[in-house]
Structure formats: structure tokens, C-alpha cells
Design brief:
Elements (H helix, E strand, L loop, with lengths): L3 H15 L4 E6 L24 E3 L2 E6 L2 E6 L5 E6 L8 E7 L3 E6 L6 E5 L23 H8 L6 H5 L10 H11 L12 H20 L39 E5 L2 E5 L6
Antiparallel strand pairs: 1-6, 2-3, 3-4, 4-8, 5-7, 6-7, 9-10
This protein binds a DNA duplex through helix 4.
DNA sequence: ATAATAACCTGAGGGC
DNA sequence: TGCCCTCAGGTTATTA
């Protein structure tokens, strides 16, 4: 579910409630996530939280003796609520804080994860090979051109590959490609540098705009305060059944790498 | 190395 | 109402 804007929204939403707090208690109701929750997590009681930040689609929370690595998978979300608030069927983890509030992790499909490392979290096996942040200066025309060259894969697959660039998922890949006028099926290595420059720009613009709207809520996603994200109303092709708002041609839906892609045959080539 | 596929889950929604 | 099918914001391991 969550792509970079949703993870960013979640991170910013929970941070003020967590910073400087001591962990009173962990309640783990279901350990079977993407990877089983290690018992090391149970040992974090009493430790203090020093920061809450994002890398790609991971949320990192350093405490006294290491760092928690959270991932929301396809259907995960986090909320901060009073300790004794009702427990949802899919609320797998509750982290009770000294403030009397709890960080509650809900994830119906259980593709999310909660890991712990005592070492440098950015050197963790799952994070050390990640590509650059799309909103950073490291993600620029020269970089995208270099990783696209000689690649036969589709441009959509490439920008959704976290080892090339992080954070761009199925929604924003379709949206950014629409804004750049590039078909999702285009072979990455066949696109001119000029058009890739445009794509870099539209990826950044699309993600910035979505963050400003609190992300996109389709089904499961909610912000830490329970509100939905409002970017859904700004989607131009993803999930659109009707005609293109720019040229009037019917939006097409196709399948690429087992995922749905949407594009406008009039605006994108 | 690259690229495409299977796999991990639950729930919503449509057709009958 | 119920059953069966398809689809869903992700990522890793496996297979060519």
C-alpha cells in the first residue's frame, strides 16, 4: 500500500508522539509478519526513543541499544492512540509509551515487518543496497540516464525497483510517467536523456504534491491521527476508468510484471 | 548481472 | 445471502 508519500506522512505523524519517550511495554499479538518478529523486540522495554526517520519505505526508530526497522508492506498503517483504546483484529503490535499513548501497528495482509538491529541500520542487509532518495540531489538526470542505459526492462519496472531509486511504487510510477509523457512499457534504454530529465522532474513533483496532501488513501492507509490522505483526487491515470482529462482519450489499463499500469495512449509515447 | 515469475497474506467487490 | 473469482500502495527468493 504505502509508497514514499504515505511512509513520509506516517513518519512525520508519529514522530512528535515518540521523540524522547520511554517504552513502557511491547504487546506483540501476531509475530508472523513478512519476517517473524524477533524476541529482541520484547527486550526493548524501558529504552528511550531518540529519533523517527525514513529511508525509502522503511521507518527507522533508534532506541538505547539499537534501531527498529519498520516496513508497512502493502496494507500496513500506524496510529497513535491512548493505551487502552479498542484493539483491532489486525493490530499486530502495540508499543506502549510512558506518555500513556500507544503506537499501534495494523496490517491485515501481514506483508509488513518489524526488525531490529544493533549495528548501523543503513548497513542492514535490506537497506545497504537501496538506491538514492528520489527527492535528493543524488537522484538527477545523469543518474537516471546511467541506470537506464543498456537496460531492456520497461521504464516502469525500473523506477519501481528500490535498488535503482527508492519510494516509487505502483501509483506514483503511473502518475509520474503520465506527467512525463512516457508510456510505462517503454524500454528503459531507449529513452532519450532529455525525456529522462523530464521524468526525474515529474517523479519529484508528483511525490512532493502527494506528501503535501498527506498521501493517497485507497483502502487501508490512514495517517497517524486516523485521517485519510487526500491525493486520490489528484490522480490522473491510476485507477481511472474513464477518459484522459488532458486529451479525452480513454485511459488504458494493462498488466506489467503482475502489476496494473495505467496510461493515456494519447499523451504518452 | 539482468529480467521475469512465484511466493508471502487477508479482504473487498463483482457476477451469478 | 453465499460462493467463486479477481484484484489490491511491496519486496524477496527463485528461476531462466
Amino acid at each position: 500500500m504505502p509508497e514514499l508519500p504515505e511512509v513520509e506522512t506516517t513518519t512525520n505523524g508519529i514522530r512528535p508522539h515518540l521523540l524522547g519517550q520511554r517504552i513502557e511495554r511491547f504487546i506483540i499479538r501476531e509475530r508472523r509478519l513478512r519476517w517473524p518478529i524477533s524476541e529482541a523486540i520484547d527486550q526493548l522495554t524501558g529504552q528511550k526513543i531518540y529519533d523517527v526517520y525514513r529511508r525509502g519505505k522503511y521507518i527507522l526508530i533508534p532506541v538505547d541499544q539499537g534501531t527498529m526497522l519498520w516496513h508497512l508492506g502493502m496494507s500496513g498503517s500506524m496510529r497513535v492512540l491512548p493505551v487502552n483504546s479498542p484493539v483491532d483484529k489486525h493490530e499486530h503490535v502495540e508499543m506502549q509509551l510512558a506518555s500513556g499513548q500507544s503506537l499501534k501497528f495494523r496490517d491485515p495482509r501481514r506483508f509488513g515487518s518489524l526488525l531490529f538491529t544493533k549495528a548501523d541500520p543503513l548497513q542492514h542487509k535490506l537497506l545497504c543496497k537501496l538506491g538514492p532518495e528520489p527527492l535528493s540531489v543524488e537522484f538527477n538526470t545523469d543518474y537516471l540516464y546511467r541506470v537506464c542505459r543498456h537496460r531492456s526492462t520497461s521504464i516502469k519496472s525500473l523506477i519501481m525497483d528500490s535498488h535503482r531509486v527508492v519510494g516509487v511504487g505502483n501509483i506514483y510510477a503511473s502518475e509520474a510517467l503520465f506527467s512525463a509523457g512516457i508510456r510505462p512499457t517503454r524500454e528503459a534504454g531507449s529513452i532519450s536523456k532529455k525525456r529522462l530529465a523530464k521524468l526525474v522532474e515529474t517523479i519529484k513533483r508528483t511525490l512532493h504534491a502527494a506528501i503535501a496532501q498527506g498521501g493517497t488513501t485507497l483502502q487501508d492507509f490512514s495517517r497517524a491521527d486516523g485521517k485519510p490522505g487526500y491525493f486520490k483526487q489528484s490522480l490522473q491515470v491510476y485507477g481511472v476508468k474513464g477518459d484522459c482529462s488532458v486529451c479525452g482519450k480513454p485511459i488504458k489499463q494493462i498488466t506489467q510484471n503482475q502489476r496494473s499500469s495505467y496510461y493515456c495512449p494519447g499523451c504518452q509515447s
